[in-house]
Amino acid sequence: MQRNQYGMPLMGLGTYGRRGTQGIDAILAALEIGYRHLDTAQSYDTERECGEALRQSGLPRDEIFVTTKIDMPNFGGGKLVPSLRRSLDALAMDYVDLTLIHWPSPHEQVPLATYLEQLAEAQALGLTRTIGVSNFTIDLLQRSRTILGDLPIANNQVECHPYLQNRKLVDFCDGAGIPVTAYQPIAHGALKGDPVLEPLAATKGCTVEQLAIAFALARGLAAIPASSNRERLATNFAAEQVVLTPDDMAIIASVDRGARRIDPASAPAWD
Ligand SMILES: NC(=O)c1ccc[n+]([C@@H]2O[C@H](COP(=O)([O-])OP(=O)(O)OC[C@H]3O[C@@H](n4cnc5c(N)ncnc54)[C@H](OP(=O)(O)O)[C@@H]3O)[C@@H](O)[C@H]2O)c1
Predict the structure, then answer these.
(1) What is the pLDDT of residues 120-172, one digit of tens each?
(2) Is the CB of 225 under 6 A from ligand 1?
(3) How far apart are CA 70 and CA 103, in angstroms?
(4) Does the residue 58 lie in any domain?
(5) Could you tell me if 27 and 38 are in contact, meaning their C-beta atoms sit under 8 angstroms apart?
(6) The domain containing residue 112 runs over which residues?
(7) Which of 40, 182, 215, 241 could bond 160 through an S-S bridge, CB–CB 3.0 to 4.6 Å?
């Protein structure tokens, strides 16, 4: 299992939409298959499901890397730390491994320093082992580094898949020592039938989804595909075994079309 410098397994499980008993069953199946990295968020309302699946698995807490994300209503002064305590209650955990700012506050409604300083406080209190951000641009990352000083930004989680390779941002993060997690790494199933990727997958004896996950991992990114289906959970997980040659990488690189799937009106001006 490949891990980054903060101990995060590069292969992870997205949990958006995995709620209730079905959600718990999906997360538990993933843990049985071998996933050791769970990605949740306050706004997904899947923290309880992650905690319950871990409890049912019988795995020790320290074998699992858990990421949660702070929702915008919890950015204001004095709100972030209590909200993370509520997340820990839902997870039935004493700490999370990584806490991210889910989205930057639109138009700086809440100043960057206000919520980043509270995130740093959460780390100092031991509620989270590391801290990071999500959907942050290069400009926001640079300003965050100035605010946080020596405290490392342990992740920037962004949309990234063969149709949106985000090269400028990933290159910046590589240079700055900020690990990147690719969300929607299989473009929510949209790669199926691709005229370039399908033939390549056929020659490699894998699926286009495995190709996309292997591509993210080969770029040094973490990948967090979601599924409620045991077979797809297993094939996605097995993508870590797919070996891509430089020629394969170049072919996958060629399908980039800057196609962003998640782009709300409140999003920052992307790089
Ligand atoms: N930070 C952010 O702002 C942000 C935004 C979006 C997502 N995320 C994170 O990223 C995770 C992944 O994103 P996502 O869940 O939106 O999309 P995704 O992982 O790209 O795609 C998931 C969808 O694809 C299907 N699927 C999974 N494996 C498949 C396979 N091998 N072949 C065909 N279809 C497959 C799943 O259906 P089945 O269940 O039927 O398999 C599910 O509907 C989220 O769960 C969340 O943790 C973060």
Answers:
(1) 999 999 999 999 999 999 999 999 999 999 999 999 999 999 999 999 999 99
(2) yes
(3) 8
(4) yes
(5) yes
(6) 13-189+220-227
(7) 182
Domain assignment present for 160: yes
- How far is the C-alpha of 227 from the C-alpha of 20, rounded, in Å? 14
Q: Ligand 1 centroid vs 17 CA: distance in angstroms?
A: 9
Please state the rounded mean pLDDT for residues 226-248: 98
Round to whole Å and give the CA distance between 8 and 67.
9
User: Which residue from 46, 58, 55, 59 is spatially nearest to 14, judged by alpha carbons?
Assistant: 46
Identify the residue whose tokens are 């580094």. 145
The pick from 35, 158, 188 for probing ligand 1's pocket by mutation, whose C-beta has the most ligand atoms within 8 angstroms, reads 188
Does residue 118 fall inside a structural domain?
yes
Distances (CA, A) of 112 to 103, 133, 158, 188, 199: 11, 11, 18, 30, 45
In a domain, 236, yes or no: no
Measured in angstroms, how far is the CA atom of residue 60 from the centroid of ligand 1? 26
Q: Indicate which CATH number applies to the domain containing 37.
A: 3.20.20.100
| Cα–Cα distance, 44 to 50 (Å, whole number) | 11
Sheet containing 180-183: give its strands across. Answer: 13-14, 37-39, 65-70, 96-101, 128-134, 156-159, 180-183, 222-223
pLDDT of residue 188: 97
Q: If you measure from the C-alpha of residue 126 to the centroid of ligand 1, how many angstroms do you get, rounded to a whole number?
A: 30
> What is the rounded CA–CA span in Å between residue 248 and residue 220?
16
Q: Is-catalytic flag, 115?
A: no
* Residue to substitute in 69, 227, 237, 263 for testing ligand 1 pocket (most ligand atoms within 8 angstroms of CB): 227
